[in-house]
Design a protein that fits this description.
mainly alpha, about 50% helix, 3-stranded antiparallel β-sheet, about 160 residues, single chain
């Protein structure tokens, strides 16, 4: 049994390794590290700039602390306002329900009073027991009103002749 062995380079851009292919298990063969450098050497100035950029100075830490405290304060205040609003909405809902019940009771009482008033009985009692009479033609005095539904008396009503 003959096995053929073939050496190929991978087609990826950054690979420096070679593969051995054949009928046996694949084996990884790599090239010496000195031949290809994986990362370019970074200059001393660039390293210093990177270190400086990753460090936090005292002013930045103080700024972040103040910002975090302000954000926390605003969040707590928002939650308190939301809770107060919810309580007030529940209070308004209960007052509206109470108003609805009172209106229904008031309407029922009004309907009961209107239904129980017998105008014929009131007329009979007024005429027979209280000796009241209908006014005669000369007893009625008409006053001009200023558009309202009632008249206020600021002086005595003149005597009838």
């Amino acid at each position: 049994m003959k096995s053929s062995v073939k050496m190929t380079r991978p087609t990826t851009k950054y690979s420096n390794q070679m593969y051995v292919e054949g009928s046996a298990v694949r084996k990884l063969a790599s090239e010496p590290a000195s031949r290809h450098r994986l990362t370019p050497e970074v200059s001393r100035v660039a390293r210093k700039n990177r270190q400086k950029a990753t460090q936090m100075n005292l002013r930045y830490v103080i700024f972040l602390t103040i910002t975090a405290v302000a954000t926390l304060f605003l969040c707590v205040h928002f939650v308190q306002l939301k809770a107060k609003l919810t309580t007030q909405m529940e209070n308004v809902a209960s007052k509206e329900a109470e108003l609805s019940v009172l209106k229904a009771d008031n309407d029922a009482f009004h309907n009961n009073v209107v239904a129980s008033a017998d105008l014929e009985h009131i007329k009979t009692v007024a005429i027979n027991e209280l000796n009241m009479k209908y006014p005669s033609e000369g007893q009625i005095i008409n006053f001009n009103t200023a558009g309202s539904g009632y008249v206020r008396q600021y002086q005595d009503v003149p005597e009838m002749k």
